[in-house]
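Support request, please re-run this one:
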Amino acid sequence: MLFNLRGALDSIFVKVLLGLLIAAFAIWGIGPGMLAGSTRTVAKVGDTDVPTQAFANAVQRQAQQLQQQFGGQMSTDEIIKLMRLDYSVLNQMVSDAAIAEHMSDMGLRATETQLAKEIRSFQAFQAPDGSFSPEIMERALQSAGFSKSELYGDLRRGITRNQMIGSMGAATLLPRSLAEELYVWQAERRRAAMINFSASDITDIPEASTEELQAYYEASKASYMTPERRSYRYVMLTPAQFTDKVELTEADIADAYENRRDDYVKPETRELLQISFPTEKDAQAFLEQLQAGADFATAGAEATAFTKEEIALGSNTYDDVSTSFDTAAADAVFALETGAVSTPIEGIAGWSVFKVTGINPGSAVSLDDARAEIETSLRNDHAIDLMFDFQTELEDAVAEDGALTPVAAKLDLPLATVTAVDAQGKSANGEQVVTQQSEYTVMQAAFRTEAAIEPTVKDLDPRDNTKGIYLLEVTEIQEPTQQSYEEVAPKVRTAWQAEERQRRAGEIAETAKARLIAGEDAEKVANELGGTSFDAKNVSRTAEGNSGLSPNIRRLIFDLPLGEVDAERAADGNGYVVVRVDGIMPGEPDTSTPAVDALYAQLTEQFQSELFDEYRAYLLDRYEPEINNGLVDQLFRQQSEQ
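Re-run finished. Output below.
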């Protein structure tokens, strides 16, 4: 709950601990015990209960929040089912209960003084002047769907949790010198001379004899197989096939216009600045400053805890102001002209003063002007409904006839036939037969379906069933066959030449290595052997920017000692790269304090994570959570699957 209201308890220690516990419970299981016969608690950890009502409320709250994030496109039941939200919330609550049980065993608890201090520190409960406001707290809790008892309970647990975690998270357990030594290695830079020998640049490759090519073919026969080919037929239904069958009335169009009025009728909005004061006297004093020529935002930021960014409310409708403040404030604001400032207006957060910095007139598109767009949208929507209605008739026909040819004839549907294509949609002569995205979808399914399987309805897009459906019937599967040498002779020659170029590039690279080891200049060696030389002057252990170095070459540079030479195959397989390490520049922790501090924080966090891992293992050994899985299913799982 606290994570929804503020981030004060959202420390790295809590997040790491809860994450480890949740993952552990998911892997280890929730325990063999069952709370049979009790419906008041959905789980129990030692003597600590997870109340059923609290669990149900938490699941519904999270589902509603996700529903808003998804734009209301899914129901809460669907969200719970698809995301397994009930078990996710339960795992978190069981983890929290395990911590609470341990804190109880150790006698850790929050005092009333600590609780009051924590509540008063919530920014969400503070008036503009920074003072605690019981009224604002009530509104915030009501908006978030929490009760005071839930807040106080979570706060007490959070306070004691922080006491315990604070004792475990001592940063001084790791010496800073460890980070400094690691930084010396991590931030090390290197300079290297490099020569690239591209195999494709080698042209003086002799022609291979027929005997050599045949021997090469025999050694790599598995590379010369025909692709698997499939033949299939299918029926496809999309909303576009039903658009002409849609009948619309004038009432349908008028109702749609009203339902989408927000899209066509835009209310007037006003650009607003707003500042609140605890008393009317303070607000009047602020107005006097404005009358004396003070800037609204600058003076407001100086007189209160508001920043200039917080004072600017942006563009607001009448309903926006009425909802955020009240009707009286909205009436006053929308009676002002551009540049005008309101008198102090009393509200729950104190006395507010508004300034209108701009007025954006409303706009309206008439029904006649919107008619074409509405008709198109309605036809598409109704066409989807007709497609779904027709699907039942289609499935019945398939069940009766068992094959697509008679079904297509009976229902007057186009039957598409595809013959002997490979997995890329090409025919035996290389022609691209499958070209449309929907056709690719069907083809991919054809290569996953066995022949002679009765067709079933499938969505063209599993993520959006409104795009259409199809039924598929695989009629023939041609297995891969071995191609003879005569059939693939040109491919064999090309492959042999490529391999020979690569072999020659390797020989040249070995020659270059020997000359560099002997102390010759890299550029001279490159020029004489037909390579390309360049200096990598500031290479880091990890890729930075557009260095152009492949990971294998970067690894080679940092594996070699100073002055050593070696070669590595190019990452794209085209030749070899010869490397000589000419310089090593260790990281300098004394001149990189921020970077060392960040590394030290990372090491400390990792070390603390290991501590919490040990703590988790201790909790799982000491307590055995019991879950009433039947009750969980009864609350959400069975309901969402109906």
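Residues 248 and 354 are 48 Å apart (CA to CA). The radius of gyration is 36 Å.
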